[in-house]
Amino acid sequence: MGTEFLKIKESEDALEIIQNLFDKYYTLQSEEIAVEDAYGRVLSGDVYSRMDFPPFDKALKDGFAILSQDSFGASEESPKTLEVIDFLEAGSTTDKIVEEGKCVEISTGAAMPEGADAVVMVEYCEKMDSAVNILTTVTPTQDVAKKGSDTEESKLILKKGDVLTPGKIGVLLETDAKDEVLAKDICLHIASSAPEFVSRKDIPASVIEEETRIEMGKEDLAKKPEQIRAKIVEGRVNKLMAQRCLVEQPFVKNPEQTIEQLISGKFNIVKFDRYVLGEGLEKRNDNFADEVMSQLGK
């Protein structure tokens, strides 16, 4: 018989040999790098949350922070009237305490004032000078994210050996989004639909003023009475702003659902950056619309 020059091994055996050589001759080392350089790298150790997130009870909707019991029995036919004692935007605080018959006007993301246990959405309220009519009943904790409800302090959020993908890098930056698949869908939507703002509160007043000026000057409204023209323009500008706000856009994979409805109770979108490749940058053939269609099976 001739000499056998080639010995064939099963792939599992070959992988075991390679792994044994790797373990024998390679010493695992770690290094610190910038987050923007972390894509595709492997974590050398477990990552634990350093804080509760959110770090306080916070409002999930724009509206009024109230004692839920003050809304019991409220309806459009029989509203409950409460005194408005303060206004809270995201990042602001108050020393006012919400007691029976009182409330605080509040923006999405703001810390809940002491005493309040629920938020009534602004759509179900009628604001007056220093009071508000509540038109619906709410339950305790309604539209409130409790402290630590997304991630508790010292909770394991990423494991040693995890490969850092965009979703996991996002977790490292701000441990708000826990659903990596949903986070990717949001990124896909942003790439495809090109929103300019997260929500209405992010739109500069100058943008709204400019759009209003443009609409007011359109020929089809020239002969309309001033009051009617102003009402039509308000509706048109409102529609334009909805098209430019991420949370109000129809989800690209399910147009019957808005982004706000999609993420409600799951996570909050703080900000986003959308990059467009230009002539001076390396071009790629990625087609986000095609990717969306392929995921839809079309």
For this entry, give a set of tags.
298 residues, alpha+beta, six-stranded mixed β-sheet, two-stranded antiparallel ribbon, 27% helix
How is this structure best described in words?
With 298 residues, the protein is an alpha+beta fold. The chain is 27% helix and 15% strand. The chain contains 7 helices and 12 strands. The chain has helices at 11-25, 166-173, 180-193, 205-216, 226-244, 259-263, 288-295, and strands at 47-48, 58-59, 63-66, 80-88, 102-106, 118-121, 125-127, 131-134, 144-145, 156-158, 250-251, 254-258. The strands form 4 sheets. Strands 6-3-5-4-8-7 form a 6-stranded mixed sheet, with no helix packed on it. Strands 1-10 form a two-stranded antiparallel sheet. The protein has a two-stranded antiparallel sheet with strand order 2-9. Strand 7 (125-127) and strand 8 (131-134) form a beta hairpin. Helix 4 crosses helix 5 (226-244). The radius of gyration is 27 Å and the shape is extended. Mean pLDDT is 82; it is low at 277-286.
